[in-house]
Amino acid sequence: MKNIILPIDFGDSTEKLLNAAVKFAKEMDGNICLIHVAPSDMGFAIGDMGFQYFPEVEQNEISGELSQLNDLENKVKGEGVSCEHLLKQGIAKEVILEYAEDKNADYIVMGSHGRSGIYDVFVGSLTKELTKNSPIPVLVIPCHE
């Protein structure tokens, strides 16, 4: 069975990406490993007193994201594909590549929004970074209209 890493950001294209990954997993006799990477500074805010940490904000956010991951895992399993999930905080590229290595992944499935140019300069593109740095094949699914 092939291990397919599917990073999830809960954006607008999550559903389309998930459906494509399920189809790919069925064709490859694969297991989907969902991963969501939350930022390390999730509970921090800046205000009048400088940086402040609010652990309850971080805990609420993580609980909500874990619930969403559980829902996605159940959806994948409902399609007849084996699935598991992980939520981890850190730098997305590093965490995803580490997870892929730990799972002995055969593929990483990523979405592409079709943006380029100035957007990449300021925001960056995780898909672009993974395709450049991954020793594991990256399947890019177009998610733009």
TrEMBL record:
Question: Does this entry carry the keyword Cytoplasm?
Answer: yes
Q: Where are the transmembrane segments?
A: none
One GO cellular component term, please give it.
cytoplasm
**InterPro entries assigned:** Rossmann-like_a/b/a_fold, Universal_stress_UspA, UspA
Its keywords, alphabetically, are: Cytoplasm
List locations, semicolon-separated. Answer: Cytoplasm
**Residues of the UspA domain:** 1-142
Q: Does the keyword Cell cycle apply?
A: no
Where is it mostly found? cytoplasm
Family, per the entry? Answer: Belongs to the universal stress protein A family.
Q: What protein does this entry describe?
A: Universal stress protein
Q: Which organism is it from?
A: Frigoriflavimonas asaccharolytica
Lineage, highest ranks first:
Bacteria, Pseudomonadati, Bacteroidota, Flavobacteriia, Flavobacteriales
